[in-house]
Write a structure and sequence with these properties.
- It is a single chain.
- The N and C termini lie close together (9 Å).
- This protein is elongated.
- It has two domains: 2-30 and 134-233, no CATH class; 38-133, no CATH class.
- It is α/β, with parallel strands linked by helices.
- It has seven helices and eight strands; from the N terminus they run E-E-H-E-E-E-H-E-H-E-H-H-E-H-H.
């Protein structure tokens, strides 16, 4: 979780991803694929989860409610870097499971879809883990994102702020913060960032502008901004910020 705090009346934009070096320049850090986990299936609406790990692959089982019916489902997750032999080894163990079946791979293995389709044929459907999770997040937050686009106030005559330091005519603080909030970096470099300035210089306007920019680009950037107005701070519980 990447967080940006703007000191003053402004709300907070809390976004995933990004890294900023100590010198204030952006570093390109390697993005390591995150494993598919039980909590991802919980996000997708499955319960009664079971997990069986093998070398290079994992089988998850769970139950989802479809109307009044309980639908048993099995998921085969092939880890990043799996070999063809691992996938072939997993097949008899996987296809014998009850219910619907889905083969899931990380984005780095999407190029191997044809091999997976040929190996598993009509036994299962193929999904990229990141696409599957993002589709559910989009569905869950669609109304909230629309609320930000319509309700968050925007200045009619907006002037892009600049950070302190040597004058750079083309430098825009909002663009720099947008890059900070959306750049996919090493999780070890995640931290809270604070924008400080005197009263009345535009921190609240900047926070609202960032929230709107991120809401407008939510699909392409795959982020969900969290914008909290100052009037809401006293209603928040610390546990809700986790």
């Amino acid at each position: 979780m990447r967080e940006l705090l703007l000191a003053g009346k402004a709300a907070r934009a809390s976004i995933n991803r990004s890294s900023l070096s100590r010198q204030g320049r952006f570093d390109r850090l390697p993005c390591v694929p995150r494993a598919f986990l039980e909590r991802d299936l919980e996000i997708l609406g499955y319960s009664e989860l079971r997990e069986e790990r093998f070398e290079g692959w994992t089988i998850f089982s769970g139950v989802a409610l479809a109307g009044l019916e309980r639908v048993e489902t099995a998921f085969l997750y092939l880890n990043a870097g799996f070999t063809n032999e691992m996938a072939k080894e997993a097949k008899p163990e996987f296809v014998g499971r009850k219910g619907r079946k889905y083969v899931i791979v990380p984005r780095s293995e999407e190029r191997r879809k044809n091999f997976i389709d040929e190996l598993f044929g009509s036994y299962s459907k193929f999904f990229v883990a990141e696409d599957l999770i993002w589709a559910k997040i989009q569905e869950r937050f669609a109304e909230y994102l629309q609320h930000i686009r319509k309700i968050v106030p925007q200045e009619e005559h907006y002037v892009a702020p600049r950070k302190e330091g040597p004058y750079e005519p083309d430098a825009r603080l909002d663009d720099e913060l947008l890059q900070l909030l959306t750049y996919n970096g090493d999780k070890e470099n995640r931290r809270i960032n604070v924008v400080r300035a005197a009263a009345g210089v535009g921190k609240t306007t900047l926070a609202r502008r960032l929230a709107r920019m991120l809401a407008d680009r939510s699909d392409s950037l795959r982020v969900v901004p969290v914008q909290v107005e100052s009037s809401h701070w006293d209603k928040l519980q610390l546990a809700s910020l986790e």
